[in-house]
Write a structure and sequence with these properties.
The structure is a homodimer. Chain A is an alpha+beta fold. Chain A is built from 8 helices and 4 strands. Chain A has a 4-stranded mixed β-sheet with strand order 2-1-3-4, with helices on both faces. In chain A, helix 1 links the parallel strand 1 and strand 2. Chains A and B meet through helix 2, helix 3 and helix 8 of A and helix 2, helix 3 and helix 8 of B.
Amino acid sequence: MNSPIDFYFDFSSPYGYLAAQKIEALAARYGRGVTWRPMLLGAAFKATGAAPLPTIPLKGEYAKRDFLRSARFYDVPFRIPDPFPISTLHACRAFYAAPAEKQVPLAKVLFKAYFVDNVNIGEADNVLKIAATLGLKPDLNDQALKDKTRAEVDAAVARGVFGSPYIVVDGEPFWGMDRFEQLERWLRGPF
Amino acid sequence: MNSPIDFYFDFSSPYGYLAAQKIEALAARYGRGVTWRPMLLGAAFKATGAAPLPTIPLKGEYAKRDFLRSARFYDVPFRIPDPFPISTLHACRAFYAAPAEKQVPLAKVLFKAYFVDNVNIGEADNVLKIAATLGLKPDLNDQALKDKTRAEVDAAVARGVFGSPYIVVDGEPFWGMDRFEQLERWLRGPF
């Protein structure tokens, strides 16, 4: 039995959202499961000194165009939400509060809410409403949940996760939706 | 007749080097030529606040692995040179000093010298030796050449070029070797 793929992402990351639409089918073609691991890009950016794409001169303008073009390329419904980007702390906590079997369904509806329906999932109230559609009522201010979420995010950064999406298969890291081709070849066998 | 593709790159950029091995064949499949436009990433980084990849925590370590893996993926001979990265001002000047028909051949031998043979093309003497193999004897300190090179680099940044490789086809920009798939689809028709 092959070990699952680790899929790190931030709920505010367009490329993370695009990857989320494709990762399970890709993994399944090679008999793999996927472990979804939301993290907070802000924590990674503290380690790397990076800044959110829209704030960067030249690159920010390019990024907006590339988000939209990439979504068309991969045939995924997408809009640039407003506001963008946002803190996804509440979304991240809601994910880790959920029972295992509801985590991935919750991640999918959170992504869709933000990148398709333009719901600001940076706001706790919106996260709670979305969670409720799956019968979930997380206490987003619970200290144990805060600690667990922080530990997950710290563990991601400690493992070297600096961007979104960031995928690890058998110890080999792949950063970006645009590494899916290399990831797929790796799943056939290391090269 | 379709207009040529603009191919911006820095001679010290591994992804620029990889792209240089593939861009002409790709363009030719769609009846396009390629205009090679070396620039200096340092000038772009001043505009964006970016730093050379190897200096960035987490991302730098990943980048080294990704350079090597990407070279294997694209089946291109490659090593991480030492020193890396370097200033490619002299290489850039030598390119713009060359007559049009020798610019691309010179770019190719400069790239090969650095990324295959580990020759430090940051040093003017090495650039001159390489240029001499093509019968070229540029005066790298000529003021008109300095001005021309600077103007080319400034024009690139003014156009929005912030990374390497950066390709523009009919006004549409593509950053990165990993956008070649989107570039190829665009050459079949905008999407």
